């Protein structure tokens, strides 16, 4: 599993109905994209759920690198670049994935929490703690699915969770970004293996 995210920050007075319309008219185009586990079409709106910005921030889980490459070098991503400029594309390798009790529901909210692995911490220990947190999160009511991924260049873990309705407050809430899910393309989500990725 590979994860990918780009976050396009928009002006404070940007009409987010433009993004909503974009997703409503184009979101279905990836509903059967080969190699794609899921694409969550995410937005944050300034002043909603504590967001300081307007942002369009799709988050992907890929089953295959071929699928990811087909998207990045294909017409869809090139169209986004033409409309918004080329965004920085963050990407991580998968550590774990779990389905929650609301897996069959259409998620309406998402939480993204990135945190560094401190220099004095053994990476394997940080990963094990992250996987334990992943398992606990998957057991919470309202969870659609949750993933743990790592960027070993910057030694950063990222925990991404889709929620059926709203993101509840947790002790980790101050460090997470909350999003609205406008659409979920999930052509190969059922193929993502659960649990540890090695």
Summary, kept brief:
It is built from 4 helices and 11 strands; from the N terminus they run ββαβββααββαββββ.
Summary keywords:
globular; 198 residues; 22% helix; 4 helices; alpha+beta; eight-stranded antiparallel β-barrel; Alpha-Beta Plaits
**Major sheet description:** 8 strands, antiparallel, barrel
Give Rg in angstroms.
16 Å
Number of domains: 1
| Mean pLDDT score | 95
User: What proportion of the residues form beta strands (DSSP E)?
Assistant: 25-35%
Number of discrete helical segments:
4
Q: What is the CATH class designation? A: Alpha Beta
Poorly predicted regions are none
Q: What is the string of SSEs from the N terminus onward?
A: EEHEEEHHEEHEEEE
Architecture per CATH nomenclature, i.e. the level-2 architecture: 2-Layer Sandwich
Number of E-type strands: 11
CATH fold-level label: Alpha-Beta Plaits
**Helix content range:** 10-25%
Choose one word for the global shape. Answer: globular
User: What structural class do the secondary elements suggest?
Assistant: alpha+beta
Distance between the termini: 11 Å
Strand order of the largest sheet: 1-5-3-10-7-9-8-6
């Amino acid at each position: 599993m590979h994860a990918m995210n780009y976050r396009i920050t928009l002006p404070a007075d940007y009409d987010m109905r433009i993004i909503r319309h974009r997703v409503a008219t184009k979101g279905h185009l990836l509903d059967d994209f080969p190699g794609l586990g899921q694409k969550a079409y995410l937005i944050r709106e300034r002043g909603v759920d504590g967001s300081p910005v307007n942002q369009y921030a799709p988050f992907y889980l890929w089953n295959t690198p071929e699928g990811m490459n087909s998207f990045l070098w294909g017409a869809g991503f090139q169209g986004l670049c033409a409309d918004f400029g080329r965004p920085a594309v963050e990407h991580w390798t998968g550590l774990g994935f779990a389905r929650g009790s609301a897996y069959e529901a259409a998620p309406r909210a998402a939480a993204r929490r990135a945190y560094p692995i401190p220099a004095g911490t053994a990476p394997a220990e940080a990963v094990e703690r992250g996987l334990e947190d992943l398992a606990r999160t998957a057991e919470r009511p309202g969870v659609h699915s949750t993933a743990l991924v790592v960027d070993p260049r910057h030694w950063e873990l990222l925990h991404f969770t889709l929620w059926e309705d709203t993101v509840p407050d947790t002790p980790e809430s101050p460090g997470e970004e909350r999003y609205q899910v406008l659409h979920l393309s999930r052509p190969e989500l059922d193929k993502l293996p659960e649990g540890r990725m090695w």
